[in-house]
Amino acid sequence: MSAGVLAAAPLLVGGGNGSGTQAVNRRPICDNLGFSLPSTVGGQVRIPVTDVAADPDVTPVRLVSVFGGAPVGSAVISDNGTPAVLNDDILVFTRTSPEPGTVFLYWTVSDGSSSAQCGSHASDEPPPENG
Question: What dotted CATH number matches 27-122?
Answer without folding.
Answer: 2.60.40
